[in-house]
Amino acid sequence: MTQLTRQDCERLDQDDALAAVRQEFDLPENTIYLNGNSLGAMPKKALDQARQTVINEWGQDLIKSWNLHDWFSLPQRLGDQLAPLIGADAGEVVVTDSTGINLFKVLSAALMSQQQAHPQRKKIVMEGSNFPTDNYTAQGLIKLLGDQHEIVFAEGEEIVEVIDDSVAVVCLTQVHYKTGRILDMQAITEKTHACGALSIWDLCHSAGAMPVELNACRVDFAVGCTYKYLNGGPGSPAFIFTAKRHQGKALQPLTGWWGHAAPFAFERDYTPADNISQMLSGTQPIVSLAMTAVGLDISVRADMQLVRQKSQQLGDLFIRLLAERCGDCQFRVVSPLDAAQRGSQVAIAHEHGYAIMQAMIARGVIGDFRAPDILRVGFSALYVSYTDVYDAVDILRDIMDNDIWQQPEYNRRHAVT
Amino acid sequence: MTQLTRQDCERLDQDDALAAVRQEFDLPENTIYLNGNSLGAMPKKALDQARQTVINEWGQDLIKSWNLHDWFSLPQRLGDQLAPLIGADAGEVVVTDSTGINLFKVLSAALMSQQQAHPQRKKIVMEGSNFPTDNYTAQGLIKLLGDQHEIVFAEGEEIVEVIDDSVAVVCLTQVHYKTGRILDMQAITEKTHACGALSIWDLCHSAGAMPVELNACRVDFAVGCTYKYLNGGPGSPAFIFTAKRHQGKALQPLTGWWGHAAPFAFERDYTPADNISQMLSGTQPIVSLAMTAVGLDISVRADMQLVRQKSQQLGDLFIRLLAERCGDCQFRVVSPLDAAQRGSQVAIAHEHGYAIMQAMIARGVIGDFRAPDILRVGFSALYVSYTDVYDAVDILRDIMDNDIWQQPEYNRRHAVT
């Protein structure tokens, strides 16, 4: 097999059905942005949306905007916009709060439901190596509930084995934040239900990166963020999915006025809305919330099958170029080599991973580092090109050839990595 | 006593030490905005801040902004900026999440502390007529904890009477959202502590409107919003105060990675930060969060004693003009007549309150209506002038004279009022 050339990659870009989507984003010059798995790029229309919300709505219409611009229903309207991307129906998703807060809501709702159905069940199955905020959330809830529950930690393929009829809830992230490994949502959810447990999926690394089929898999609850592959802006509000069959029954405990059956009746006592609105709590940050519409709009117009296909090809291309051009550099691919089992990112390990990533960032190739030795590069198919991948590996080769990563400035640790 | 004239009000404006602050806000033309108690006006620099965060930070520096622009410490930096406005010290306040979510955190923290100190105490004192989301939050938490706790509802002056040594927590809003009545923070907190209970204050209608002395009153916890008198923008993130003596001890249960002692160690298990950061949960909406700095900056530069004094005078002026010019119209002042007992708003009742307020809004005088019959007008001293108040009453007189409020279009109810 002959080695791939830059011309080969240019040809792939010419044939790329998604190539035009890149024009909807404003990417900085001299930058190859391979970190959309952490913070998505800025759509060109983002500032227009901010200007609209700040100047025309807040500034001009002030309090009247709650009616005139229907700020109050933004969580539901954005949820309906997002729903098809994750295999949900209208009325099953709201955009609100943060992923962790939302996980607290659905985990509480699931545990309280199980308290009725199977009061003796106290186990929650989670993955120990998951992005830790999910585990922290469960630990905080368990402590609040008086330490009656227990987390059963399992990893990867072990997970399906530990699900049995002593389990109340199975709470997993579909795509692993570090390795990009995909869990089998369908098989795990089937086993979960066969054992009488409820399923919660965290879609932070899958929503917008690949087709997700929540209802086809009969998932009970899901959460996820909008600032990675959905390009909603830094820390943009997260989402909650609750399957129709649980609405009005499985209730969440962060009971603010936005989740009340009649929020503007200002009644003293809480009456839950009998629909997805019950998953809301308090007043939302309208500027950040409204901006998520811009990124969502781009994703909704893209064909998620094509997005998935291209991201797999970008990942395969990176892995192949790494082998061809940096085969002597002691990199080890940590992500699954089979694209079908891999999300939209590739993790590689190297003893000097931190310094190498700093050197890459200094050269304009933006990925990130996760301790102890992992370099992550994400391939957001909406704006990353095949030549981006070629050029990134080219720069990596140069860094390794010239020992640039040994320079002291690349070995100083930042507070945030 | 002769009736006040517009010239009198013009003279008051000329002598107003805060008059220049109005220039820092962009107010719509032909509008008298008397609803800063619900949504503060837009500072002129708001869009600049949005542009900076969206274009220069998100767009250009992308993921590097977490370090370069220190997004991660925004909740603490904004909290330190806000602290002097509420009588708190640096390191005691963070800006994050919504008021309701934050109330859930501190109420949980307080109840869990009391579970150690006084395990038999299960009562929470609240005000039944409070803005209901506070009550809903307590009700949601109580249900989650298995209905072991009980809310003792009291009103106004009764409150101090129901605090005894069976009470775990006293959770009140300092300024009543509807009537503007101020509760005596010092006396109630003293009684609370004398009885061995913990105090939580909601400052939604006081922060930025008057000097608040949390530490001088030995308050334990507080929450509040930044989008009313602090002009942070629609739904801008709220704040939490935790007195130094409780930090590292009274822990909140929405345990996300931002509250971890070492967030970037990505450890599997939660270890709480031993400072105010433990009150954080997950990733924040950075655009909305960063924008709060603009409004805070204006308030921090203003003298809160002057702000308070002017807002009292504006309220007194409104009440006097209403008596002088609309004395025959059956309005009833619901707020305390004594300015010392009244926050920065005046509530008046009228049988046809809804239609009258709609007619006022149609004429550019923006206040709001609260069922069953209350018209609220807020006097944000940073940008409301004495002539604004004169002109507002002038328009109200005209509406009443011409029965404009009887027209059918003012009697149609909006979903959001």
UniProtKB/TrEMBL annotation, chains A, B:
A single GO molecular-function term is:
pyridoxal phosphate binding
Q: Subunit arrangement?
A: Homodimer.
Q: Name one GO biological process term.
A: L-tryptophan catabolic process to kynurenine
The biological pathway it contributes to is: Amino-acid degradation; L-kynurenine degradation; L-alanine and anthranilate from L-kynurenine: step 1/1; Cofactor biosynthesis; NAD(+) biosynthesis; quinolinate from L-kynurenine: step 2/3
Give the record's family classification. Answer: Belongs to the kynureninase family.
Q: Which cofactor does it need?
A: pyridoxal 5'-phosphate
Catalytic activity reported: 3-hydroxy-L-kynurenine + H2O = 3-hydroxyanthranilate + L-alanine + H(+); L-kynurenine + H2O = anthranilate + L-alanine + H(+)
Which positions bear N6-(pyridoxal phosphate)lysine? K228
- A GO term from the CC aspect: cytoplasm
Which amino acids does the record list as binding pyridoxal 5'-phosphate? T99, F131, P132, T133, D134, T173, D202, H205, Y227, W257, T283
Would you tell me the protein name for this molecule? Kynureninase
UniProt keyword annotations, A-Z: Hydrolase, Pyridine nucleotide biosynthesis, Pyridoxal phosphate
Job of this protein: Catalyzes the cleavage of L-kynurenine (L-Kyn) and L-3-hydroxykynurenine (L-3OHKyn) into anthranilic acid (AA) and 3-hydroxyanthranilic acid (3-OHAA), respectively.
The record's listing under NCBIfam families reads:
kynureninase
Kindly give the Gene3D superfamilies that the UniProt entry links to this protein.
Aspartate Aminotransferase, domain 1, Type I PLP-dependent aspartate aminotransferase-like (Major domain)
Q: InterPro entries under this entry?
A: Kynureninase, PyrdxlP-dep_Trfase, PyrdxlP-dep_Trfase_major, PyrdxlP-dep_Trfase_small
* UniProt EC number: 3.7.1.3
